[in-house]
Amino acid sequence: MPLPKVLVVEDEAAQREVLTYNLEAEGYAVTQADNGEEALLLVEEETPDLIVLDWMLPNVSGIEVCRRLKSRNDTRSVPIIMLSARSEEVDMVRGLETGADDYMVKPYSVAELMARVRNQLRRSRPSALGAVLEWEDITLDPETHRVHRGGKILKLGPTEFRLLTTFMEKPGRVWSREVLLDRVWGRDIYVDTRTVDVHIGRLRKALCAHGGGDPLRTVRGAGYALG
Ligand code: CA
């Protein structure tokens, strides 16, 4: 799997650099923005796995960025950790009301922030941190790239493996073809949405290779889900 992508939104250059340095040292791919407007544009280009978002920003404030991202279906599940100065602490309640997943008050401990980033990613992108995913009789190991069903090994192509990883991270969630394209193929690559159907077909075949029912659900007009 590609490295977890973290977007750092902070207008103070020194703090932005410290955050970027530490996040990269943890093994994340980091992109940076120094204002709210740029942050929204960057999310539009490529959905990050997590956002560290400063409260006070030029142009569009952190709280407004948070509100907008949490009101959209395609970005709602991206964890947001908000940063604020102590004087803004009271306002943090509002921050959490707009859907921020966690917050820290400046000056914060970088080690503590890294722990919270890991926590959020463990919940939202467990495979990116190497955790074995399990769903019913299927297990997927992101480190060895091995997939088993009922104890038997399954043969999956790389695209099918990434698709299954996405499904197993959020069983029951319905994924649209567009979101799957973005997540599994990446936004820079031009692929027709019908390609998704082709690979879903291959994944289904691989999952049922040793018997067992088809665990994937086609949701008419919406996309696909596991279970
Ligand atoms: Ca600021």
The figure for the number of domains is 2
Supply the CATH architecture of the largest domain: 3-Layer(aba) Sandwich
Sheet-strand content, in percent, reads 15-25%
Q: Give the C-level CATH assignment of the largest domain.
A: Alpha Beta
Which compounds are bound in this model? calcium ion
Strand order in the largest sheet: 2-1-3-4-5
CATH homology superfamily name of the largest domain: Response regulator
**Overall mean confidence score, pLDDT:** 91
Helix fraction bin: 40-55%
Sheet with most strands: 5 strands, parallel
Please count the helical segments.
Answer: 8
Structural category: alpha/beta
What is Rg?
A: 19 Å
The succession of helices and strands, N to C, reads EHEHEHEHEHEEEEHHHEE
What are the low-pLDDT stretches, counting only 5+ consecutive residues below 50? none
Distance between the termini: 23 Å
Any idea what the shape is?
A: elongated
Describe the structure.
With 227 residues, the chain is an alpha/beta fold. The protein has eight helices and eleven strands. A five-stranded parallel sheet has the order 2-1-3-4-5, with helices on both faces. Helix 1 links the parallel strand 1 and strand 2. The chain is elongated, with a radius of gyration of 19 Å. It starts with a strand and ends with a strand. Calcium ion binds next to loops.
Core attributes:
single chain; 227 residues; alpha/beta; Rossmann fold; Arc Repressor Mutant, subunit A; 5-stranded parallel β-sheet; 4-stranded antiparallel β-sheet; 8 helices; 41% helix; elongated; binds calcium ion
